[in-house]
Each structure stands twice: as C-alpha cells, then as structure tokens.
Amino acid sequence: MPHAMNRRKLLKTASATALGAWGAAAGAQSFGFAPQQRYPDPSVFILDPSFAKYRIYSSTIEQLGTGMRWAEGPVYFPETGTLILSDIPNNRLMKYEEKTGKFSVHKQGVNYANGNTRDRQGRLISCEHSVTRRVVRTERDGRTTVLADSYQGKRLNAPNDVVVKSDDSVWFTDPLFGINGEWEGARATPEQATTNVYRIAKDGQISAVVTDIVNPNGLAFSSDEKKLYVIEWKGTPHRSVWSFDVSADGSSLSNKTKLIDADGPGALDGMRVDRDGNLWCGWGFSGALSAQPSDIGGGMSAYLPLGKSEEMDGVKVFNPQGKPIGFIRLPERCANLEFGGPKRNRLYMASSHSLYALYVEAHGAA
C-alpha cells in the first residue's frame, strides 16, 4: 500500500510539473503547430526573387504563446523588451517578455481593446473599440488619458487600429466591428454617418482625414512618412490597401490610389512597413462562400467556402509598388503584426489564438 501511495504521489507530482511547464509555454504546441527541424523553413515562401534577401536561411517560425480567442494589435516596447497585444473577446491585454519567454495576462477589463501602438515618449496608446469606444493613452503612473471619444459631438464608432507620426500626431481608423455584435464587445447603434480615418493633432484637435472608405481597418505610414496606407475591409468589392499622399505639414491627405487588391477570397487586416518600404500584411481567407449550395451528403446542401484557410493564412509581403514578393504561411489567420527585438528584425504575428515570431533580414520602420 505505501508503495502504491508513493507511486500515485509521484504521478500526481509529474502531472503537475507537466501542466506547469505547459502553462509557462502557454501551450506552445497546440493548434497543430510543430516547429520546423529543417532549414530553411518551408513555410516561408519567396514569391519574387527580391524577397530572398529578407529570408534568413536558419530562422524558423516559433509559437510563443496561445490560448487567446482573437489576437490583435501587437506593439513592441524596446525599453523593456516586451510585446503587448490584445485578446479582444476575452477583454484583456497580453504580454510577452523576450528575456524570459513568459507569456501572461498584462491587464484585464480593457474595453475590448483592439489596435495598440506606442507614442514617441514610450507610452501605450490603445483603441478601446467597444463600450467606451475611444482612443486612450496609458501614462507612466498607470493613469488613463482619453485622446478621442467623439467627433463633432457624436460618439466614435469602434476605434480599430492606430499609429503615431513623428510629429506626435495620432492617426486611427474607426470602422463598425466593435459594435456590430456581442463577440468583440457590445452591440450598439453607430452615431457617425461614415466610417473614417481620424488625425489627432499634437494640440488635441481631431479631424477626419478620410471619409470615403467602408470600414477602414489597418493603417501604416511609409518609411519616409510621405504616404499613409489604409486597409479597406469592404466595399471595393475586395479588401484593398489604399495609398494617400501626406501633405508637407502632415495634416491632410490627397491622391487616393489603390495599391493592393486582395482579389477574391484573400483578407487583409493589419500591416507594418519595413525600412525598405515593403508592406508586411496580415493575410488569410475572407470566409467568402460560393453562390450556390453543394451536396455534402446526408441529404444536405451547404454553401462551401471559396478558399482554403490552410493555404491562405499567414503574412503576405508586398513591395512599395504593391507587388507580392513573399509569404509566411501560418496554421492560423494573422490579424496583425509588429517588428520587435533589439534590432527590430523579429517579426511578431498575432494570429487568431496564438502569437508567432520569425527573425527576418528586414527591420521595422521607426
């Protein structure tokens, strides 16, 4: 009997140890992900010879953490070597620490924060895209400063993604996603007549700089800040990236040009720009369905998807002229991404349930 009790105790201890290790790694082997043992990683595709210089032969994709419901808005803080990202349906911010590899909850109850960025002073700026529907800044002492919650006396729709320009102006998109249903927040009636891109000047004045895009989503400045790129989620009829020229004083936009068309079932979401001007875009299957149902057996017919998520999910890279040059295939759809690490050459990819990373020979634009 003592021997059996000791054996049960040993098994219990081993089980607890295994669970502890799993928690520390945040379940890093789930959702069908297995690290590649061979170089180069076969999940990194060169679509054009110009992308070859950005692929590191001996770098493979890593899954750093998982267990989220919809990962979004990664932002890197070089001072602490940490990455903050949103887990929208769970209404929390997550944190990854580069030195320890720890993946944990950073903050709960964040009003379904979506996009995040840092300002030039190193403070976190977040888009609370439901309930409060505002853009906020977290001060160094933890206080929250509201940067925008209304425009022309009416509440914002659902702030989605945000960037900060070198002149300290804050630019953000305001689609309807956070108030369309109950999954990513609370359903509400929009008050704005259009879905806009806004600019918050250094003095706090808010202006609508784009008013003719249907549900603007991700946005990013070119490496020289002479152009602003905005992803249109719907209405073109495909998802697209629009390019705008930024005025010399940085306050207005002109020359709207379609740079990238997702062309069919492809889905663009968030994006980042590297120092060479390439656009690294979250990519995946849009969920588009066939026009007519097909027989699926059992006397049933169903509208089948027009694409395969397992072939399309990941990151698609375009050169400054909008030509696709590279693709990083992931086991989950990538919503948004960020360049981090001390050299700004570690690509972090917030993808559905998980956070992935890949070292590349590209460096994120400042």
Automatic annotation (TrEMBL):
<feature type="domain" description="SMP-30/Gluconolactonase/LRE-like region">
    <location>
        <begin position="70"/>
        <end position="353"/>
    </location>
</feature>
<dbReference type="InterPro" id="IPR013658">
    <property type="entry name" value="SGL"/>
</dbReference>
<feature type="signal peptide">
    <location>
        <begin position="1"/>
        <end position="28"/>
    </location>
</feature>
<dbReference type="InterPro" id="IPR011042">
    <property type="entry name" value="6-blade_b-propeller_TolB-like"/>
</dbReference>
<dbReference type="InterPro" id="IPR005511">
    <property type="entry name" value="SMP-30"/>
</dbReference>
<keyword id="KW-0378">Hydrolase</keyword>
<dbReference type="Pfam" id="PF08450">
    <property type="entry name" value="SGL"/>
</dbReference>
<protein>
    <submittedName>
        <fullName>SMP-30/gluconolactonase/LRE family protein</fullName>
    </submittedName>
</protein>
<dbReference type="InterPro" id="IPR006311">
    <property type="entry name" value="TAT_signal"/>
</dbReference>
<dbReference type="InterPro" id="IPR051262">
    <property type="entry name" value="SMP-30/CGR1_Lactonase"/>
</dbReference>
<keyword id="KW-0732">Signal</keyword>
